[in-house]
Specification:
The protein has 243 residues and is α/β, with parallel strands linked by helices. The chain is built from eight helices and eight strands, in the order E-H-E-E-H-E-H-E-H-E-H-E-H-E-H-H. It is globular.
């Protein structure tokens, strides 16, 4: 899954996203024109909704009222589209989620018939509560949005995964391909990224690297890694040595 922000223009957005092989593209309704501004370029002219699943998000919302209102606007603009990504931010400096407001908005949106994918802290208890509310996917941050710090607390992600019955998607903090691979090796169902690609020196090359990293990380998880041992273990047989 990829975002659409921070690229130089919609042409670069389209070309980089195509390189990722992503199936879902998230769009900030408060920052990106999908038809609400008739005189401006519409990103849907560059990202074909018959090819990509467009996931409207509530980036830039700092309370539940604004987030719920933004989701209703998205549903109107996208002809009844129910799938949304909920973000309710605590402040503009850290961009950490305001979890009380996130919980409140999640309840209201689920009751209103939305399929809610929700950005949240990496708190296992709150992640489970969001699942119990009825969110279709829980999306804990790996690190602050746009930081590129990678997965700062893999143990919390593992705890969230161990109790989850809905898809868990790492959202925010991925900086390079190895970060994406680690997320998938932990058992996550996906990774959402934007800045790591858009702000790379070569976005197209990074987009391809991210695609390969997600695929290899998933395959490594499915393969099941070897048990960690803290003594040497020869890979060659010790019997029948040539003398």
């Amino acid at each position: 899954m990829v975002g659409t922000g921070k690229y130089r223009d919609f042409k670069e957005t389209k070309e980089a996203i195509t390189e990722t092989g992503a199936q879902i593209v998230t769009v900030a309704i408060r920052r990106t024109n999908i038809g609400q501004e008739k005189e401006e370029e519409n990103i849907l002219d560059f990202l074909d909704p018959t090819i990509f699943t467009i996931l409207p998000n509530t980036a830039g919302c700092y309370n539940s009222e604004d987030a719920v209102r933004t989701c209703h606007l998205a549903r109107e603009l996208l002809d009844g589209h129910k799938l949304v990504k909920l973000e309710v931010l605590g402040d503009s400096k850290t961009l950490y989620p305001d979890m009380p407001q996130t919980l409140e908005a999640s309840k209201r949106l689920v009751e209103d018939g939305f399929d809610v994918m929700v950005y949240c802290s990496d708190d296992p208890i709150l992640a489970k509560e969001l699942e119990d509310i009825g969110c279709v996917s829980v999306m804990p941050l790996a690190a602050p949005i746009g930081s590129g710090l990678g997965i700062c607390n893999p143990y919390n992600i593992e705890l969230i995964l161990s109790n989850a019955k809905v898809p868990i998607i790492v959202d925010a903090g991925v900086g390079t391909a190895s970060d994406a691979s680690i997320a998938m090796e932990l058992g996550c169902d996906g990774v959402l990224m934007n800045t790591a690609i858009a702000k790379a020196k070569n976005p197209y090359l990074m987009a391809r690297a991210m695609r390969k990293a997600v695929e290899s990380g998933r395959e490594a998880f499915l393969a099941g890694r070897m048990e960690k041992v803290y003594l040497g273990s020869a890979s060659s047989p010790s019997e029948g040595l040539i003398k």
